Each structure stands twice: as C-alpha cells, then as structure tokens.
Amino acid sequence: MNRAIKGQCLCGYIKYKYLGPTGKIVHCHCSKCRKWHGSPYRSRIVIRRDGFKWISGEDHLSFYDSSENVTKSFCKHCGSNLVSFYKNNNTILGLPLGGIEGDLNDIEQIHILTKYKALWYQISDNYEQYAELPVDPSIIRKIVE
Ligand SMILES: [Zn+2]
Ligand SMILES: [Zn+2]
Q1: Dist. CA 51 → ligand 2 center (Å)
Q2: Structure pTM?
Q3: Ligand nearest to the CA of residue 39, numbered in listed order
Q4: Mean pLDDT for each consecutive 10-residue tract of the chain (145 residues)?
Q5: What is the CATH number for 57?
Q6: How many other CB atoms are there within 10 angstroms of residue 136's CB atom?
Q7: Interval between CA 14 and ligand 1 midpoint (Å)
Q8: Would you say residue 140 lies in a domain?
Q9: Which domain holds residue 90?
Q10: If you measure from the C-alpha of residue 79 to the centroid of ligand 1, how many angstroms do you get, rounded to a whole number?
C-alpha cells in the first residue's frame, strides 16, 4: 500500500516527502537509539529509497556513522534526527517518525531490543515485543507492497 508522508526537522529548514509502501513501525529500545533520540526509545519505519525526496535544506544535512552498516543523518542547525542509510542495503532508508505530519495508525507496530530498555520506562501497549533483534530480519526490514 502506497503512503504519502511529509515531514521536517525542528527548525523547518530541512523538509522531505515520501511516496511508497512502508515496513512495520519499529520501536527500538537499544541504548544507541535512546541516546540518539534523547528519549526512551526510537520509533521508525523503513521506506524505499527511490520514493524519498528532500524538498529543501539538503545542504543542512550532517552525517554520523553509528555503526559499520549505518549512517544517520540530522539537521546541523537544530539537531533533529532524520533518515538512516544502510550500507548493506541501499534500496531502503530508516525514517524516524517524530518529524512526520499526519497519522500512520493502521500500520502494525512492534517493540525490539526490549531487554535493553530504560529501567524507568514501562511499555504499556499490547504491541508484540522482542527482547533481542528478531531472528528473522525481515520482521524489521520488510516493506509491505
Ligand atoms: Zn533543522
Ligand atoms: Zn536501536
């Protein structure tokens, strides 16, 4: 199912849009995501790179290699987290959901790496939880056409 998504960074200089299918909404509780987002967990979906476009502010992007396989982007003016690039799969991007406009509430949601969650945070919804990374990587990477 194709979705039209728009979003922007906090200062509004960087704007983006996406048209295409997405993966599940993944709430990641690992310590890297908690630090990067300054929050109890990170919420993101995977999207197809060929459906994603920067509308404005691409010159304000800054990049950080958070692991061998992952490069994260953010606004160098306001610090907002933007898309993640995966070196082992350049056909998809990880899109953090805090910056998007509108609703995605019909997409399936899951929690991953809950073994590492912030001790002060209690998960109070009924979405499926994975203590570690799911053994089947398609659970967090697969885009539903
Ligand atoms: Zn910004
Ligand atoms: Zn994580």
Answers
A1: 24
A2: 0.94
A3: 2
A4: 95 97 97 96 97 98 96 98 96 96 91 98 97 92 86
A5: 2.170.150.70
A6: 9
A7: 6
A8: no
A9: 3-135
A10: 6
